[in-house]
Amino acid sequence: MTLVSDHIEPDTRERILVVAERLFRQIGYQKTTVADIAKELRMSPANVYRFFDSKKAIHEGVARTLMGQVEVAAMVIANRGGPAAPRLRELLGTIHSMNTERYVGDNKLHEMVAVAMEQSWEVCEAHMLLITETVGRVIGQGAASGEFAVSDLPVAAKCACTAMMRFFHPQMIAQCATKPGPTIDEMIDFVLAGLGSTGAAS
């Protein structure tokens, strides 16, 4: 038998995360308190603590949600059929564009990323691992079809993601935006060439 509480609790957790993200965007992570979140939800801080044991836990939940959206988009591209090289180009470009849209130019969310890097590294690490695995899946498909000449898939995936770090990492995207360097298309061409793709500059 399904209990009413089985539906209420996940819904309440989601509402807390939605409101927390909105407040983080509006007034910043550091200035937002659990009391602020509770007030917006018309509940007591004690009730918020029933679902999240700390503000840090709420922050991690919001970070997982934002990162999860990028992961879902990446997996959709990886799971799609067709040649691997153009899909890898789309995958790398999508990760960059989604991170740019979310964090660059939004100082409040940029602050949240900085806090995540300092206080919730395991959340960031899990995200980077999943993204690397997804990139590796597409590289593996390209190797199987003969598009890429790769002997060590895990190393190839790590190298590709490391090469793209300037375009993946929110803080580096912001810091490098006005500095000299390759464009994202040039960097993706470089990655594809490194994988042995003959159509790197497509």
From TrEMBL:
Q: Which PANTHER family match?
A: HTH-TYPE TRANSCRIPTIONAL REGULATOR RUTR (PTHR30055), TRANSCRIPTIONAL REGULATORY PROTEIN (PTHR30055:SF151)
Q: Which residues form a coiled coil?
A: none
Superkingdom classification of source: Bacteria
Q: Which residues bind DNA?
A: 33-52
GO MF annotations, alphabetized: DNA-binding transcription factor activity; transcription cis-regulatory region binding
Q: Does the keyword ATP-binding apply?
A: no
- Protein known as: Putative transcriptional regulator, TetR family
Its signal peptide is none
Q: Which Pfam families match?
A: TetR_C_27, TetR_N
**For the HTH tetR-type domain, which residue ranges apply?**
10-70
The alphabetized UniProt keywords are: DNA-binding, Transcription, Transcription regulation
Enumerate the InterPro entries for this protein.
Homeodomain-like_sf (IPR009057), HTH-type_TetR-like_transc_reg (IPR050109), HTH_TetR (IPR001647), Tet_transcr_reg_TetR-rel_C_sf (IPR036271), TetR_C_27 (IPR041478)
